[in-house]
Structure formats: structure tokens, C-alpha cells
Amino acid sequence: MITDGYVYIFDTTLRDGEQSPGCSMTLEEKLRLARRLEDLGVDVIEAGFPAASRGEIASVKQIAAVVEKSQVAGLCRTREQDILAAWEGVKAAARPRLHVFIATSELHMKYKLKLTREQVLEEIRRGVGLCRSFCDSVEFSAEDATRSDIGFLKEAFACAIDAGATVLNIPDTVGYTMPSEYTTIVGEISQVVGDKEVIISTHCHNDLGLAVANSLAAIATGARQVECCVNGIGERAGNASLEEIVMAIKVRKDLFGCNTGIKTQEIAAVSRIVSEITGMPVPATKPIVGRNAFAHEAGIHQHGMLSDPRTYEIMRPADVGVTESKIILGKHSGRYALQDRLITLGYRLSTTQLAAVFERFKVLADKKKNIYDEDLHALVAEDTYNIRSRYELINIEFKGGTETEPWAKATVAYNGQQHTSEATGNGPVNAVIEAIRQATDNDSVTLEDYGLTALTGGADAQARASVKIAEKELVSHGQGTHIDVVMASALAFVNALNHQALQMEILNSRNSKPPPK
User: Fold this and answer.
1) What is the pLDDT of residues 335-378, one digit of tens each?
2) Which residues contact 191 (CB under 8 A, 6 or more apart)?
3) How many other CB atoms are there within 10 angstroms of residue 17's CB atom?
4) Helix/strand/coil percentages in the chain, nearest 5
5) At 516, is the pLDDT very low, low, confident or very high (cuts 50, 70, 90)?
6) Which terminus has fewer CB within 10 Å in the chain: N or C?
7) What pLDDT does residue 341 have?
8) Contact (CB, 8 A) for 410 and 428
């Protein structure tokens, strides 16, 4: 078993992370994120599940074409058609990997697969063998491993090794196990691997809040690959958090004796990108990347920090790319000053993107005396993380007051025409959202969640509105930023409608069959 001091970081934000409700990404967003993950130093990027649809194959192929240093993995079941689709997706990658899986727990084998143990072993033998015929890097995952009979699990992994697997992944698929149990499982599988050149990997879900703890317990026992997501996003309660695992290994190197290839100074920037793309805000108290992660309000803490930051900080903000928010720019600032600050904040914009951001910067600077880092993040988000627009907000009008019924009129363009509608509500925001809903013929859409935050202090602070909408089981999100809170809310709702349209397009694509063999 490979147990040297290097821990491989396998990022599945583009695959498992995207499976979070409302987190579907456009191809442009996936490509942008893949490049940033590569710059971050991720060893393996799981680009998707190619067998899902023709569109997914095309998406994985394009990611494989732009990534040069990281391995690009395609997920597949042990079925031949899945494997052929996955290989079609990753074969052009500079460093391709096939990630093949099948369930090994009695529950999954009986009720989901309807296969016997012997049939599952045959599936592993055939599936891993076919993968190895295409690719030298083959990872085998035993789905629901932590609820599997340990004797059969060892038999399944031994079968995978014999068939050519180079990485064995032990998924805690439903976030069920405890660190002590996971340690025991990793130890048992280590005996199966013996002195073979095989890496043991983890894939932990966070249903009981133990994904990171379980992953770290496995590393301490000899696992040398961790599957994780930026910001810990993923199905249900999410996956193990990349930033927490990486910084735990770095801060407690005395305990683990390991290191990763992650450029930790890029963590904060990549976290923001994932948050903007998926519309999932990072909680203020989130370790490493939360807004309060390096904030100190209690007097005793502040006194200690002023004396020596190490009293209450086990890592420096700069270690993860967190920069102090400063008043640095205004309406007299030029393009060079803007570009320099954006680079400091971790953004790598093309000339075209920079020009677009600079134009919006000038417009904002005419409205605000001082431009803060948070304002810059919002400006970049408008250009970098937008999705294809079916609906375009043309104009809104609204009124309200203590003696006036809140009223709004919205004009939205779609299908080549402008549509206008008026509505009342229990406040201007409610009225404008209702007007947009009527103007776009989206009466069945319900507003599931709404949030409003000020990006900075001051009376001229920009507001960021975040909304989540639902239609039947489809959940979509949108964000909008503006000095006017009603305008920010209107933009967020329209963006959510555009995200809904995108998800419908993706679902329709995924429902189509993959190419024939």
C-alpha cells in the first residue's frame, strides 16, 4: 500500500457537488472552475458522470481538453455502456482516470442492484478489467462500504486489485460511520492491499457532521487520497470539505506527518467562485472560508490578538488567501489599480472580462464614494458567473409607504418580446417579485427562500439578495447585487428564473440516452 507523506486531493465539486439541488452549472462555469481547481493544485478533478447523457459526455470531454496538470476522472458504473461513455469523456485528457463503482452492502445489493454477492464480484472483475484495458489509472469504489459486511468488502477490494485497480475508495455514502469505525475499516482494507502499489481513498458524506473527521481518521490510518468538495457542498448534507481537510493536514503536520499539493493561498478565491456559481452562500461561521473565521469581537480575544495573533489564530488569514478589506478604490481609480487589486483578491480575468468589470466599476463608483473588496467580488461575479439568459429585466417601478399599498410594475424581455405586469404585495419586494412572476408566466413558481445582506458598511452599501425558487421538485437559485434593495431582489428573482430554465435544459439533456456502443 502506498503510505508515503503525500495526500492526493480528489475534488468532486464538478460531479458530486453539482448534484446538490439547485447547483447545476453551465459548461462555461464548469470549465472556469476546472481551471481554477487545477491552479489550486488539485491532483484529480472528477469532471462528471458521462453516462448520464450526451451533454454530460461533451462537458467532460471539454474539461479534459483544457486541464493539463491534474488528472481528469470520469465516474461510471461497472456496466459496459457506462465505462465506454466515461472513456469517451476522458480519453483526450493529458492524465485520464476511470472511476468505476458498484454497491457492496447487503441493503444496496438486495434492494437496488438485485444481485447476489457472486454477481457483484463478477461485475467488479469485468468492470475494473475493462477500465484497465483503456486506462492505467483505475479507481474502484465500493458504494455504501461502511455499511457492508467487512468480510465481503475485503473480498470485493481484493477482486478489484486483481482486475487492475490502482486506487481503492471506501465511501461512507450516507455519512453513517464514526471515526473509530472508519479507522478499523481502513486498517482491514490495508491488510488486503499489503505491499501492492495501490492507494486507499476516502469519500465521506456529512449526514452526521463527521465527513472531515472521518477523512482525517483515515489519513492517520494510512489512506493517501481524499475525495472532497470545495465548501463541502454535495448531496444531502454535503461532502467532506476540501479546505478543512487541507488546512487540518497543514496546521497539524506534527500529528499527520503529511502534506498536499494545494496552494492554500488560493483557497478563499476558489471558495468564493464556487459559492457564486452554485448560489450556495458560505455560512459566516464556516471554518477556514467563513466571513467570521478570522473575526475577533470579544474584548479578551482582541487584547490577545493585539499582543500576538497566535493567541487566537492557529493559522494566518493570508495562509488561505483572506485579505483585509480596505477602502482602496474610488471614482478616480484607473484600470491598472482595479486590475492589481483583483489579482490580489485571486481573480485572473481576461482582457475582455476586465474591460466589462471596469465599466461596471466606474458606474458603481459614481454612486458610491468608496469601493470595498466585497464590492469588487460582486462586480466580478456579475461578469464571470452569469448564466445564459432567457429572461432579461428591462425596468421596474415600485412604491410603498405607511399609508400606501405596496405596488410594483415590471417589464421583462423573453421570446423576443417585452412583457409588462403590475402587482401589489405586502411590501415593495414582494410586489415586484409578484409582478415579475406574472410578466414571465411563472405563476406556479414559489419563493422558497429569500435573504438580503449588505456587502459593506455605510448607508451607500450594496445589497446582495439571494433567492431560492421551486416548481414541483426543481429547486433553482439566483443572486442580485444593487445599491437599491428592491432592484437587487428583482435581479435575483430573474436570475433564479434563468437558472430554472437552464436546469430544465440540463434535465432534458440527461433524460436522453447516451450514444450507442
Assistant:
1) 888 888 888 777 878 888 888 889 888 888 888 777 877 788 77
2) 154
3) 28
4) 45, 20, 35
5) very low
6) C
7) 83
8) no
CA distance 90 to 97: 7
Write down the pLDDT at residue 183: 98
Alpha-carbon distances, residue 268 vs 149, 230, 288, 384 (angstroms)? 40, 10, 8, 16
Backbone φ and ψ for 133, nearest 5 degrees, come out as: -70, -20
Amino acid at position 77, single letter = R
Query: Given this model, what pLDDT does residue 303 score?
Result: 44
Task: Pinpoint the alpha helices (H) of 308-371.
Answer: 335-344, 351-367
pLDDT digits (tens, 9 = 90+) for 156-214: 999 999 999 999 999 999 999 999 999 999 999 999 999 999 999 999 999 999 999 99
- pLDDT score of 302: 43
Class of domain 392-508: alpha beta
Q: How far is CA 212 from CA 169, 204, 219, 398, in A?
A: 16, 7, 11, 47
Q: Are 478 and 467 in contact (CB under 8 A)?
A: yes
Nearest-10 Cα torsion for 18, 20, 22, 24: 10
Half-sphere exposure of 36 (CA within 13 A, CB side): 26
Domain ranges of the chain: 8-278, 323-381, 392-508
* CA pair distance 60, 43, nearest whole angstrom: 17
Q: Kindly report whether the global pTM for this prediction surpasses the value 0.85.
A: no
Nearest to 410 by CA among 491, 495, 496, 501: 491
> Where does the pLDDT of residue 388 fall: very low under 50, low under 70, confident under 90, or very high at 90 and above?
low
pLDDT tier, 301 (very low <50, low <70, confident <90, very high otherwise): very low
Sign of the dihedral defined by the CA atoms of residues 175, 180, 185, 186, in that order = positive
In residues, how long is the chain?
517
CB 180 within 8 A of CB 218: no
Pairing of β 8-11 and β 225-228? parallel
Number of H helices, E strands in the chain: 17, 14
Higher-confidence residue: 385 or 100? 100
Are 328 and 421 within 8 A, CB to CB? no
CA-angle at 46, arms to 117 and 261, nearest 5° = 115
Task: Measure CA of the first residue to CA of the last residue in the chain; give whole Å.
Answer: 36
Strand bridging mode 404-414 / 417-424: antiparallel
Distance CA 258, CA 201 (A): 15
C-alpha cell at 491: 435581479
Question: What are the tens digits of pLDDT across the range 453-493?
Answer: 888 777 778 888 989 999 987 888 888 889 899 999 999 99
**30, 63 in Cβ contact below 8 A?**
yes
Q: Do β-strands 167-172 and 474-482 pair in parallel, antiparallel, or remain unpaired?
A: unpaired
CATH class of 8-278: alpha beta
Q: Which of 156, 164, 219 is nearest to 189 (CA)?
A: 156
Residues in Cβ contact with 249 at an 8 Å cutoff, skipping those fewer than 6 apart: 7, 216, 219, 256, 258, 259, 260
